[in-house]
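Hey, can you fold this?
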Amino acid sequence: MDRLTSLTVFGRVVECGGFSAAARRLSMSVTMVSNHIQSLEDHLGARLLNRTTRKVSLTEIGKDYHARSMQILADLDEADRVATARNTSPVGTLRLYTSTHMVRFLSPVVAEFLTLYPAVSVDLRIGEQMVDMIEEGFDLAIRTIPLPDSSLIVRRLTPWRHILSCAPAYLKTHAAPMTLADLSQHNCLRYSLYPFGDDWTFDGPDGKPVSVRVAGNIVGNSGETLRFLALNGQGVLLAPSFMIADDVASGRLVRLLPEYRPVLFAINAIYPHRHHLSVKVRSFLDLLSQRFAEHRKWMDPEMSPEAT
């Protein structure tokens, strides 16, 4: 029989002074009450209660066992109370993982979340490679590139596209590419975590996918480093719209081959489990989804029909 139930029954028998009264309190048959007590005594190999036709009383062993078992049940009730409270109002530490270029978007959401829920603290870690969320204890990851096949849960926040560009200084010494194939003759600044490797992939003017194999004198996993090199005229850059949209708008970077649209990606929130998601994670996810929805037109300036 379930020992926790048996402990509860044992406590009620002692409290009520008999099997019948305990049975009425527990909405249980007297036989079932008796079976629970017998199960405990069989498990312990000791008698807990002295039984007479008129009343029951604790044995010496029963007194010690009753005191300890009631403390166990009280501790369990307290643990349930704490867990329930944690699942109705956000508390505790929220562990987040994201990439460097997401920090500028994530930081205002974190600040707002901490203001809304002062009982929560945030542990934010930054890296380019995806981590083992379960092994390292992260509640949530915010990523901009697709995951390999995984059992992790993915919630799409907002779509985004790359922008193909270079600095005006680069065009002073290199002819602007007129076709996608021309990119193979240019110094292309390559992001090592780009999902298609060195095959930069687009939707062509006819809507069909098309790609070109590129090369260059640098490949790295720091988007900001590649952006810095592009701004200094070092090469052609395929970078997320949310990273360089301001540079393009100001003229620091020049958009190339606009008739070729980089493929659509999404910024995703990733978490280990769908069921029994803690309230702190649910609350942050909801706030994150609202705030990132406000960025959608900026994330993908062209906003294709499938993005909306």
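Oh, and this one too while you're at it.
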Amino acid sequence: MKRILLIVIRSLFNLPFWFIRLLQLSNVEKYDAQTRYGFLHKIVPTIVKRGRIKIEATGLENLPTEDGYVLFPNHQGLFDSLAIIQTHKRPLVTVMKKEIKDTILLKQVIALLQAEVIDRDDIRQSMEVIMNMTRRVKTGENFLIFAEGTRSKQGNSLLDFKGGSFKSAMKAKSPIVPVALIDSYKAFDTGNIRKLTVQIHYLKPLYYQDYKDMKSTEIAATVARLITEKIQKETKSTNLS
């Protein structure tokens, strides 16, 4: 949390403007998705730099050329979404837990992105979110969802990926893009404010033809395995160097 405080202190003169602009851009009838998301994509590098963080991204060429896909990263901490927004140019819609929907700034970001808010304890509401996601992905919106459901709190190790998180992509027959995050937890989920490098790797997507005969739990296990293998490969090479 010390790093968040550092960013806030270094951004005191920007925060009022950013907040006002977030409120303005929440008017989805006036501003299109590219304009709304573009604002976040523009200011996030400033936020990241002021937090003494560097992001190294690979695999952007793996992203599908057509919109209407779903990103499935591992979930390490509060910094994950910032790493993705900085490196992903095309508009994204996020799926967020209901517990944060009334948090200042996050509430405005939810409105700006037209995010889906899910209550994992309410099966009926969760099904409605799945249906909404399916419809929106079919119309060409790109989504970001954390299939672990919560932060792993285990460093670069993953929790089990939940099969239900993949239902929308399956119903929409959309590409599934595994995303491997490394050391993202060190940004906001530790008390360290030393210079930090966070890695984000966009892996080759699974297309409908690749997973059409698989169960949701099998897809979840496959995506988790691909991410784990990438993390192990990158962390091993880092340790050797």
